[in-house]
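Reopening this ticket.

The earlier resolution said the output was attached, but the attachment link was broken on my side. Pasting everything inline this time so it's all in one place.
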Amino acid sequence: MPTVTSLATLFAERPCWARGVPAEADASASPAIEGEVYDVVIVGAGITGLTAAFHATRRGLRVAVLEAGEPGAGASGRNSGFVIPTLSRVGPEDVARAWGAARAARFNAQLSNAANALFEFIHLERIDCDAQQNGWLQPDQFEAGAAVWQNRLRSLRESGAKARLVGPDEFKALTGSARYPAALCLMEGGQIDPLAFTRGLAAAFVRLGGTLVNGCRLLVPARPQTHQLVRLETPYGTVFARRAIVATNANGHDGAKNLTAATLPFALLLAAYDLPPDGADHVLCGNQPFSDVGRDMWFFRRLQGNRLVTGIFPTSTWLTREGINAELTQRIERVFDVTPARLTDLWAGRVGVTPRGLPQLLQLAPNVFGWTGCNGRGIALSFVMGQWLAELAADAPVESVPMPLQPLKPAGAPRVGVWVARRLIAAERRRRTQRDRCAGHPARGEATTPAD
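Inline output:
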């Protein structure tokens, strides 16, 4: 009988990343932070929060990071590890319409360089996180000569990204897949072990003299007090700061849950598979991860040790592990003509989705900043966002940051938005299954139990 599980259970499962590697950063075990005054207090030890902490500390500021779990426990350590220096659902023209041409040009230029900056940081700080800047591929079912490819290529290049078109022969040589006739290649993209990177980032921050406190939730929203100080209440006591940054994105709880309300917190299931010892050498032999185009996105990356990571958007809160495994095994077979040996890891993460597809830089209260809206492109965007937040914490004028600062506005009817998105994904999944059946690839199973 199939074993029914819940998304909540999969959110608690450990990901495959940094397996067997202990956390490097020395967090305070019994922190004496009651009454302490910092230049900057950051809530959340993910990529954004720790990047902001690192850069603020390097500017000479006294910085503390408060983490409810441990570094990378949220989305930063529970994603696919793709480094993609573009936005997901919008192009440069959309950013220009929303923010103005001058600001959009600055934003796109800095985001397009975010992958280079991240890989350079990894090199300089000697972070061991399986970093590979071999590019990232985005295939689709259009033939290489279709006009849609030139339009996409032009949009990417206008945003500052280095991109080129990959034809069917080259795509098959790089990935071992004949499923797609063409793909775009973001040449400066790549992949990392996101949990190992986040832990290395935490260690780099601590080496600079910063204070990292694990197991330390923000109990109530940060609020300014007298003397222009922000008050932050925690289980270890109350601390004060000249500036505060809430960097929990869609994973905030207690005092940070208002930030979560600004997004549609969408779930993503991820899985790691052992590939068969023979006959799988062709699978992603170029070490270039890829994500195809569509709501029901198919994505894959090769790991060391003859392993593969993939995943799926769930269309229900209640699932069966057997159904998930059947769906993902079927996808691997269809894409690479290989049957995986076994499922080794299965976990879930959250994607902070904003209604317009744009990230948001938020003024949560006087001298309290936050951001949300990675929209599935969290690593590169989070890294550069942390640098911008560090500038604001160091009293840089708001105009120096290439994003508008806006008040927190809760997403309207988030449950309805998630329900609609799930239905659209489920409909596209059925269409793909029907096309594959017509092409002679019958479905092997269903990925989820009926929606609750």
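Reporter confirms the inline version is readable. The chain has a mean pLDDT of 91. The longest strand covers residues 342-353.
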